[in-house]
Amino acid sequence: MDTTDHNSRERGLRTTVQRRLETIVRENRVTIAFVFPVVGALTLIASAEGLLPEPLAYNPLLILVGTAVMRSPLVVGILPRIGWRALACLGVLTAYTYAIELVGVWTGWPYGTFEYTIQLGPMLVDTVPLALPLFFIPLVLNAYLLTLLVLGEWSRQPLVRIPVAIGSVVAIDLVLDPAAVAIGFWEFVPAGGFYGVPLSNYLGWVLSGTVAVLLVDFAFNRSSLLERVERCEFVLDDLVSFVLLWGTINVVYGNWVAAGVAGLFCVGLFRTERYDLEMLKAALSDRLGRSANEPSR
Predict the structure, then answer these.
(1) Measured distance CA(79)–CA(82) in Å, rounded
(2) pLDDT (tens digit, 9 = 90+) per residue, 167-195?
(3) Dihedral sign (CA 250, 257, 160, 273)
(4) Nearest by Cα to 137 from 97, 107, 105, 180
């Protein structure tokens, strides 16, 4: 078989699959970025308050499926820029994610003493969720991509973009951990002063965020990645889902500082000039139009 023909067919197949995935995400933006996180927040709050029956309360399958769906715009968005170097770096980051979390649970370093109080799906050595990279790595990627877009030309400078990206990762945890503690995902012993989260947790996130951002920064060609992010309008929809899900939970439980940080991410997203009422109305109109044209069964 001619190698050139084989490579050409392979590229054609990848392009076809990529375009199909983009179409699926684009046609379901409102459902993925808005409906899923709102329903997820209500479900988790109802679970925490004992309002759901046992099969549904904290259902790990629903949590994993919901998380995977909300991550899909990010994954599909950056997929064309994931080469062998990116795969290797993300593999190292995955291993690091498991290692630092296991050390954290077993020793209390670097985050402070904590433990998972519910099972978020299958658990690795009965200690941390097997799906942990699905929960953590996209948060780092979202922070990094938002940093590139908001900084603009300043993102060319590594001494600017890397500290800002690390700060964004830590800010994401300022939103995540108070809400997760409030609904009983995990707990710190003793409870910390920031809505139950200790300062040590954020010092630990500075360490984790630094390692993760450095790996992500090395994994991708910055200009190529930025060009892709600028053209792909839905690539940050996962961050929208994150803000809606965890921001809502923080508001419900009165974690106002954490909710305010979620609001700052909203400001950053608006600065990318891809999220406004017109975008939402257009997406809703497109969705309703396709629904009306679908044949009844």
Answers:
(1) 5
(2) 999 999 999 999 999 999 999 999 999 99
(3) positive
(4) 97
Q: What's the pLDDT tens digit per position in 47-88? A: 999 999 989 999 999 999 999 999 999 999 999 999 999 999
In this prediction, residue 5 carries a pLDDT of: 61
Strand spans (E) along the chain = 114-116, 123-124, 128-129, 186-188
Burial class of residue 20 in the structure, from the number of CB atoms within 10 Å of its CB (0-12 exposed, 13-18 middle, 19+ buried): exposed
160 closest CA partner among 172, 169, 148:
148
Q: Is the dihedral of CA 218, 70, 25, 251 positive or negative?
A: negative
**Which band of pLDDT confidence, cut at 50, 70 and 90, is reported for residue 139?**
very high
Distance of CA 259 to the CA centre of its chain: 17
Average pLDDT, the chain: 92
Strand partners, 188: 114
Q: Is the pTM of this model over 0.85?
A: yes
Percentage of the residues of the chain whose pLDDT score is greater than 70: 90
Q: How far is CA 152 from the centre of its chain?
A: 22
DSSP states along 2-16:
-HHHHHHHHHHHHHH
Tokens of 264: 């700052």
Secondary structure (3-state) at 223: helix
CA–CA distances in Å: residue 127 to residues 90, 106, 131, 285: 22, 8, 12, 45
Which value, in Å, is the radius of gyration of the alpha carbons in the chain?
Answer: 20
Q: What would the two tokens of residue 134 be?
A: 């699905």
Left if phi > 0, otherwise alpha if psi is -120 to 50, otherwise beta: which for 58?
A: left
Give the model's pLDDT for residue 297. 43
